[in-house]
Amino acid sequence: MCHCSGTRREYIRQLFEQGMDVDAISRWTGALSGCGGCEWDIADFLKDLSEQKNTRL
Question: What sign does the dihedral 5-10-11-17 (CA atoms) show?
């Protein structure tokens, strides 16, 4: 998902499931701190994960 930091989609999913928000994921992985090209992709992905989580509850 983030080419600058090498952070992959599955790793972001794992961190989200551990309770991290976008800021924590960025600090932990370095994603969103390079060129910014992944910003919308990661935001949309986390939004989808959040909606899926809320649907299961």
Answer: positive
Residue appearing with tokens 């090498």: 6
Q: Which residues pair with 7 in a beta bridge?
A: 2
Nearest of 54, 45, 47 to residue 9 by alpha carbon: 45
d(CA 46, CA 51): 9
Q: Where are the beta strands (DSSP E) in 1-57?
A: none
pTM higher than 0.90:
no
Beta-ladder partners of 22? none
pLDDT in tens, 39-50: 999 999 999 999
